[in-house]
Amino acid sequence: METLTNNFKSIEEFQVISDVFSQAITGELIGMSNFASLSGTIEDPFEKMEAIEHANGERQHAEGFMAYAKKTGLNININLNGSYWGRIRDVFLSYANKNDFIACLMIQEVMLEAFAVSMYTDVGRVLEDEAQKLFLSIAEEEKEHMDHSTEILRSELKKNPDDFIRKIEIIHYECMTILSEFSARTDLSGHCGVCHGDCMKNSLHHIGLDVVTMRGNALALYAEALDNIGIPGEKSVLWIANLPA
Amino acid sequence: MDSKSTSLDFAIIGHQESWQSITSFINGIRNASIEPLPVDKIKDVFGFMPPRDLFKITLKSKTGNEVNGVFIETFIDPDKLSARYLKTNISKVKKAISLASKLNAKLATLGGFTSIVLEGSRNEFKDISIKLTTGNTLTAGFILKGIEHACVQYDIRLEESNVLIIGATGDIGLACTHYLKQKVSTLLLNARNQRRLETLATSLRNEGVNVFCDTNLESLVPKADIIIAVASSKDILIGNTKNNVIICDAGYPKNLENRLLKKEDIILFHGGMGIINYGYTFSPNYKPFFYNYPVDNVAHGCVLEAVILAFEKKYENYSVGKGNITPEAISNIYQWALKHGVELAPFYNSKGLCKLFNTKV
Ligand SMILES: NC(=O)C1=CN([C@@H]2O[C@H](COP(=O)(O)OP(=O)(O)OC[C@H]3O[C@@H](n4cnc5c(N)ncnc54)[C@H](OP(=O)(O)O)[C@@H]3O)[C@@H](O)[C@H]2O)C=CC1
Ligand SMILES: [Fe+2]
Ligand SMILES: [Fe+2]
Fold first, then answer.
1. Which of A210, A237, A238 to mutate to test the interface with B (most CBs of B within 10 A)?
2. Is residue B333 domain-shared with residue B223, that is, in the same domain?
């Protein structure tokens, strides 16, 4: 039975915030598992250590969200195998199994992180006090991950622009298709397996958000991330135009 | 290769006039095997999109030279051009300028609404090396040459004509006013802000120019032999025109044809346009999505200004601020345009080419 603690104005707010935290925790655990998997497959000692460090960072984020959820009595549902998160994990693993550090970086630190940074920022802006601080500070840290990886990817692009762009294009369609379906106005591939009951997308207005703006902002940040890596606008517009909507 | 940062001669910064045109572009570049998207879904994504370089443009001069540029779409929401959204829109234009600079363009022209950032102080651009222009000088040039050309075709004496300028206190309106003030019988000036209009009229009278001004268009239209419309407004209504009045519609949105109370005995063309005679290509070839004129190789004066300056290797802030365009600057850029094989576009309107006008002087 869900209990409404006095931290929330209404049952609807409690439910939607519970779902928001459930998604954030699930996402962080996906990130943690992704890097943990990567550390097991890559040979390069430097990259191995990098991966462990990343995994630990994501673990701390998950713990931060979990601690708040516990304190405030949120109703948390964690599911790493839902129809979107599970597929994202599969795409990541397919590259981790090939020891493809660059592809993994692209998926985790650019694609997933663009969505995390943007959505955490949007959520942080509407929540109050400790929850606000939590989302905004984690968004800030994720942003640093993005910036750091962008530098690596930028130098990778410079080595062989044609091959790099071709590779990123493939990863884009594999991964961003899932994120795009996940964040569309209606779940394009069924229930996510994380939200309680109906998808929280329809309830975001209870906390002053809407899914169209959140998704628009996230895709905009992704486009900017591609720009920063050095992908020509001509390509990114084509790639984004070809996503499901 | 597209990701090399080779230097570009120019960048064109623009926005679309309607969601319809963004929709046809996005659906046009979507893979044929996936379904086209309805406009609301396109808004959901591209209403948020930061400025992007969409395609490259190559133009050839009569001299054999070639210049290369890029089109940067600001993704300014065409339904949100009003003052309420000014901050968001200006920030998109600024991002587009930084992108042009990052792409190593030597000069950027700010088309349509985007030129607004060059009206005021340009302090924040002083640290970037890219030169900026509104393109309004060559636009005014094509408008005015269009009028002169039409007068020859119709056997109208410009010096005996009353010329009405709608949007007279704007940058292009002022350029037209100053160019025409010694060349016509009477100038009829219209805009909404009375104070600015009066100030302009007074200074012209002091120079001995025959001028009437009115914020009420209705009182000026019946006197006009020639009308130049350079206001950015959907609300203009033109009634009670003289027979065979010549109207040059150079403003946006392009809807003047639907705003005429009387449609007979009117010669209306879309002005401010030039034609490139020696080669104009897009890569990828997105022309089908961004090009909708009845003749090939036509482009806006503001776009062509950057091209001509690039052909001339004059990378400078050619048109900036408001009211700074001189008749000399207009003549100069028009002459350079001719030298490179860029001429006044044939006359056309929403129905297609205006056949009568289609012969060269
Ligand atoms: N063909 C081409 O290549 C180009 C065309 N253009 C178009 O030319 C037009 C003018 O550009 P620009 O001079 O830079 O713009 P400005 O903003 O400088 O000037 C607009 C003028 O129109 C007046 N105006 C606005 N609304 C009305 C109205 N309802 N009735 C009468 N006057 C009105 C304004 O004065 P007030 O506010 O007092 O009414 C002002 O005088 C724009 O529509 C622009 O899109 C621009 C560049 C290139
Ligand atoms: Fe994280
Ligand atoms: Fe991260």
1. A237
2. no
Identify whether the C-beta of residue B276 lies closer than 8 Å to the C-beta of residue B342.
yes
> Quick one: chain B helix, strand, coil %, rounded to 5?
40, 20, 40
Question: Ligand 3 centroid to B227 CA: how many Å?
Answer: 61
pLDDT at B280 over 80: yes
For residues B131 and B171, state if they share a domain. Answer: no
Distance CA A140, CA A121 (A): 9
Say if B330 falls within a structural domain: yes
Expressed in angstroms and rounded, the spacing between residue A144 Cα and the centre of ligand 3 is: 8
Alpha-carbon distance of A149 to A134, in angstroms, equals 23
In a domain, B359, yes or no: no
Which chain B residues are within 8 Å of A119, Cβ to Cβ? none
B41 touches chain A (CB under 8 A): yes
Residues B231 and B181 in one domain: yes
- Closest CA in chain A for residue B25: A241
Atom index in ligand 1 nearest the CA of residue B143 equals 1
Residue B360 placed within a domain: no
**pTM, rounded to two decimals:** 0.92
B280 and B224 together in one domain = no
Q: Which long-range contacts (CB under 8 A, 24 or more apart) does A66-69 make?
A: A66/A25, A68/A21, A68/A130, A68/A131, A68/A134, A69/A18, A69/A21, A69/A25
For residue B97, being part of any structural domain is answered with yes
Whether B272 lines ligand 1, by a CB cut-off of 6 Å, is yes
Per residue in A35-61, pLDDT (tens digit) is 999 898 888 898 899 889 989 999 999
Residue A216 has its nearest CB partner, among B45, B51, B55, at B45
Domain span holding position B304: 10-137+274-344
Closest CA to B230 of B309, B300, B299: B300
Contact A237 B284 (CB under 8 A): no
pLDDT tier, B146 (very low <50, low <70, confident <90, very high otherwise)? very high
Q: Which ligand is nearest to the CA of A29?
A: 2
Residues B109 and B55 in one domain: yes
**How many folded domains does chain B comprise?**
2
Give the 3-state secondary structure of residue A16.
Answer: helix
The interface residues of chain B toward chain A in range 230-289, judged by CB-CB distance below 8 A, are: 284
Average pLDDT, chain B: 92
pLDDT at B361: 31
B196: buried, middle or exposed (CB in 10 Å: 19+, 13-18, 0-12)? middle
Helix, strand or coil, per DSSP, at residue B55: strand
The class (CATH top level) of A2-241 is: mainly alpha
Chain B residues within 8 A of A179 when measuring between CB atoms? none
Q: Is the ipTM of this complex over 0.95?
A: no
Asked if the model's pLDDT at residue A187 lies above 80, the reply is no
